[in-house]
Design a protein that fits this description.
228 residues, mainly alpha, 74% helix
Length: 228
């Protein structure tokens, strides 16, 4: 149970602090602050649970590792279950906290850090832009992860490199989709954010998975280093 427990805690932390920064402190820290909240949460967990599970805390990352040939498909199942559960509980705890705000908090109107696109959502980018961003961003994110955790890479720097990559992705993409690159991160808040978020959830599952599988395939083919 060590690996599922680590992945549960890691994904909980990412959702709670990342989405929490957007919902609770977004007006004060802005997009840059939110970007760093996600990246720093990942860095902290990378060093906190990395030695236990590798700190995937992201179903797309787990599937990318499988596609790269570094994990068997059956090993991925407890990872993904724990990640989704951690994201749901992280979003639930955040929901309970924000709805206790004096004067009330309307989640359906203000949101819970959910991802989205289209009219009324941040930069109002269309579905094609959202899908392309999530695919490309996840491909590049998983490429950083697979490269930073390769045998010949400096292991002590992996968590920092991966976390900073997530910061950059958020700096570019928050106005496009709010940035998913992580189906679990999208799933948790969408459960509490209402019908629109749930209706758009498919994109934040499909695009990151396809991007991750593409990155894994590149590594498996040996185009970016030896297969592990």
């Amino acid at each position: 149970m060590r690996i599922p427990a680590a992945e549960f805690i890691g994904t909980f932390t990412l959702v709670f602090f990342g989405c929490g920064a957007a919902v609770i402190a977004g007006a004060d820290i802005g997009l840059t602050g939110i970007s760093f909240a996600f990246g720093l949460a990942l860095i902290g967990m990378a060093y906190g649970i990395g030695s236990v599970s590798g700190c995937h805390i992201n179903p797309a990352v787990t599937l990318g590792v499988v596609a790269a040939g570094r994990m068997h498909a059956t090993e991925a199942i407890p990872y993904i279950i724990a990640q989704v559960a951690g994201a749901i509980v992280g979003a639930l705890v955040l929901y309970i906290i924000v709805t206790g705000k004096g004067g009330g908090y309307d989640v359906s109107a203000t949101g819970l850090g959910q991802n989205g696109w289209g009219a009324g959502y941040l930069g109002e980018y269309n579905m094609a832009s959202a899908f392309l961003f999530e695919f490309v961003a996840t491909f590049l994110f998983v490429t950083v992860i697979l490269g930073a955790t390769a045998k010949d890479a400096p292991a002590a720097m992996a968590g920092l490199a991966i976390g900073l990559a997530l910061v950059v992705i958020h700096l570019v993409g928050i106005n496009i989709t709010g940035v998913s690159v992580n189906p679990a991160r999208s799933f948790g808040p969408a459960l509490f954010a209402g019908e629109t978020a749930l209706g758009q959830l498919w994109l934040f599952i499909l695009a990151p998975i396809l991007g991750a599988l593409a990155s894994g395939a590149v590594f498996r083919a040996g185009l970016l280093g030896d297969r592990q």
